[in-house]
Amino acid sequence: MDAADPATDDAVTSGSDSAADERTQPGEDGPGDSAPKQKNQRSFWKELPILIGIALVLALLIKTFLVQAFSIPSDSMQNTLQQGDRVLVDKLTPWFGSEPERGEVVVFHDPSQWLAGEPTADPNAIQTFLSWIGLMPSAEEKDLIKRVIGVGGDTVECKGTGPVKVNGKALSESSYVYPGNTPCTVDDIGGQFKVKVPEGYIWVMGDHRQNSRDSRYNQDDKYHGMVPVDEVVGRAIVKAWPINRWGTLPVPDTFDQDLSTRSAASTTLSTAPQGLALAAAVPVVLWRRRRIEPAETR
User: Fold this and answer.
1) Which residues is 234 bridged to in the sheet?
2) Do residues 146 and 214 make contact, with C-beta atoms less than 8 angstroms apart?
3) Which entry of 63, 91, 146, 239 is annotated as an active-site residue?
4) What is the DSSP string of 148-175?
5) Rounded to an integer, what distance in angstroms lies between the CA atom of residue 206 and that of residue 218?
6) How many CA atoms lie within 13 A of 257 on its CB side?
7) What's the rounded Cα separation, in Å, for the pair 241 and 247?
8) Is 239 a catalytic residue?
């Protein structure tokens, strides 16, 4: 190689050659520049309000359409739920036409002044904000939480010490009724009831039967103690707080039995199907014999 070669290589790496300077205009990257230009990044403090806004919108959407947290204000659902527990309520499935089923624990708006006379909380600004995004219950909303015992078309009845019956089938409620409670004793109404649940309504009862002003106590209201399905907010699915009480809220096994009104009707019809068939067949047989005998005589 000639003596000019090292000088040429040095000019490529350092960018000091006059020819290279002519090719590179001010403000432009030269062919030897490999470092990318740094873009100005937005300040974290400028992005923070945007992130908070997005989080609030998501929280509001979740509260409105998916899941909402509710606080248990009384002992009416002991021991399933304790006062102060936080439960998560599924609000999504009602949007798809799902209706409450027997055995579910549901939250519903006060149907007909069930909470009349109850003290009303006076929340501060922080509590109001937290309730708006679904992290605290709203003081303005009058909601209750009970267990569904009967749905539209059911006959629910109970006498004395029980058991509660749905369409003539007895419920075994020891797994969720408060220990020591009788299933249905209500002193104010003589300790017995028998109701027919209209379509579009549900009959609800608290698990702490002697400490729950539920459908039994409100039979004189305009709905006769029933709760319109349209007033149901959703099903309570999880005990979320306190953490040592975390757990799901499944439907008790006693509701796995066939409690439908069809079962009672089918049982009645099945008691003597052979007798009914025979009674219906006799006139047909006699009629056929009368038509055949003259033909054989001829």
Assistant:
1) 107
2) yes
3) 146
4) EEEETT-EEEEETT---EETTEEP--TT
5) 13
6) 14
7) 9
8) no
Residues 6+ apart with CB under 8 A from 282: none
Angle 126-132-137 (CA atoms, 0-180°, nearest 5)? 85
Distances (CA, A) of 104 to 64, 100, 202: 21, 7, 11
Asked if 185 and 110 touch (Cβ cutoff 8 Å), the reply is no
Is 165 assigned a catalytic role?
no
Instruction: Say if CB 223 and CB 152 are below 8 A apart.
Output: no
Contact 155, 251 (CB under 8 A): no
What would the pLDDT profile of 151-179 be if each residue is shown by its tens digit? 999 999 998 788 999 999 999 999 999 99
**The residue to which tokens 């089918």 are assigned:** 266
Helix residue spans in 95-212 (DSSP H): 125-132
Q: Which of 101, 78, 110 is nearest to 235 (CA)?
A: 101
Other C-beta atoms lying within 10 Å of the C-beta of residue 207: 24
Q: CA–CA separation, 178 vs 66, rounded Å? A: 31
**Do strands 165-166 and 155-159 pair parallel, antiparallel, or not at all (unpaired)?**
antiparallel
**H/E segment holding residue 235:** strand 232-241
> Which amino acid does the sequence have at 45?
W
Could you say which of 76, 131, 212, 215 is catalytic? 76
pLDDT at 98 (0 to 100) = 84
CB 284 within 8 A of CB 291: no
Q: What is the pLDDT of residue 261?
A: 77
Give the separation between CA 47 and CA 119, rounded to whole angstroms.
43
